[in-house]
Amino acid sequence: MAKAQHKEKPENPACRNHSDQEATHRCDNCKKPYCKKCVREQGHDRVFCAECELRVAGFLNLI
Ligand SMILES: [Zn+2]
Ligand SMILES: [Zn+2]
């Protein structure tokens, strides 16, 4: 049995939607990693994933 190779620190985790894409962003709401195609920038360094954007936007619209 070969030992699992001890790699150096892993790079960014993979995007939750694209397993072959490096997650360069993290949703500010659910904290899950996403690639930049999957997040919506909200300005001021805040990003939300599409799911949270819907939720947050829906919530804001209710006010
Ligand atoms: Zn999210
Ligand atoms: Zn993605």
Account of the protein in words:
The protein is of the alpha+beta class and 63 residues long. The protein has a domain at 25-62. The protein contains 1 helix and 4 strands, in the order ββββα. The protein has one helix at 50-62, and strands spanning 25-26, 33-34, 39-43, 46-49. The strands form 2 sheets. Strands 1-2 form a two-stranded antiparallel sheet. β3 (39-43) and β4 (46-49) form a beta hairpin. The chain is elongated. The N and C termini lie far apart (59 Å). The relative contact order is 0.17. The mean pLDDT is 82. The structure holds zinc ion (2 copies). One zinc ion (ZN) binds at residues 15, 17-18, 21, 34-35, 37-38.
Highlighted features:
63 residues, alpha+beta, 1 helix, 21% strand, elongated
What does this entry show, briefly?
The protein is of the alpha+beta class. It is built from 1 helix and 4 strands, in the order ββββα. It has a domain at 25-62.
Which of globular, elongated, flat, extended, rod-shaped describes the shape?
elongated
Low-pLDDT parts are none
Relative strand content: 15-25%
- What radius of gyration results from the CA coordinates? 15 Å
User: How would you write the strand order of the largest sheet?
Assistant: 1-2
Largest sheet: 2 strands, antiparallel
Topology pattern, helix = H, strand = E: EEEEH
User: Helical segment tally?
Assistant: 1
